[in-house]
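Key idea: predict the complex, not the pieces.
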Amino acid sequence: MQRIGILTSGGDSPGMNAAIRAVVRKAIYHGLEVIGIKRGFNGFIEGDMEPMRLGSVADIIHRGGTILHTARSEQFKTPAGRAKAWENVERFGLEGLVVIGGDGSFTGAGIFHQEYGLPVAAIPGTIDNDISGTDYSIGFDTAVNTAVDAINKIRDTATSHERTFIVEVMGRDTGFIAVAAGLAGGAESILIPEYPYSIEEVCHKLCKGYRRGKLHSIIVVAEGAGSGLEIGRQIKEHTGFDTKVTILGHLQRGGTPTAFDRILASQLGARAVELLMQGATCKMVGMTAGKIVETDLDRVLGQKKTVDLDVYRLASILAI
Ligand code: F6P
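Result:
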């Protein structure tokens, strides 16, 4: 193997740059050439690709975002789009591809591998942490810390004004960020898509807390569990409490990656290169129980990862 491509795809996540750095440096260390593909699969289709050198990844380990830029490519979902990408594989002489992204990106990479046989090493990079085959995806830890930092600040003003706050965090389909940030931030209630809830129940818990002297409350809502604004409106209507809503939104996707995410990204990036060099065909690298592991990509895509409901219940017990 002489030359590999690398791209980032889907929603960006803090630590993607550290992963790019690891892939490029590890590959060059072993004498491989690396072609950086811009704007995810869109750049793959358009041939927006250029060689990367040691200096291309200097001074990026601490930066959020992705120097390769990213996109959610509609064109790559079509056979015609993938055929154009294959032309660029041949034009640039790629013998393997590293894809950093989430499940949507991995689905595209998997189909491309099936159709054209290009070896793929996938690296999980999404703040949502909803990829099976790994305990953590790159960016999750940073996003949780960002959310906890916000909750801490909101708690200050919630206390002063004796208010109820709804904090909406990201997680279109899963409640990983909500559960982790809610537990670490001491939230009174956490609402996630995986666990049914009723507003009456949430209000009942709030009122119970206020009856025994609580003066403020924080409810963390994963966006997939409902709109924070709507939940806030309903709680105010049911309880009459002074209720405010903060939507953290894309704030959670940026910022300097935590040390954990940088270390994870460095390890996964290096392992992805090793896998391609060893002739792996279509695998994802991940970390389970502290060890770097690899899993067939179709297995990763065939399993849905959901939050640990024991941790979710623990957060509820501790917020009694
Ligand atoms: O996939 C990660 C994610 O951050 C989701 O939690 C969120 O719903 C979505 O991306 C937002 O995507 P976009 O930036 O395209 O609006």
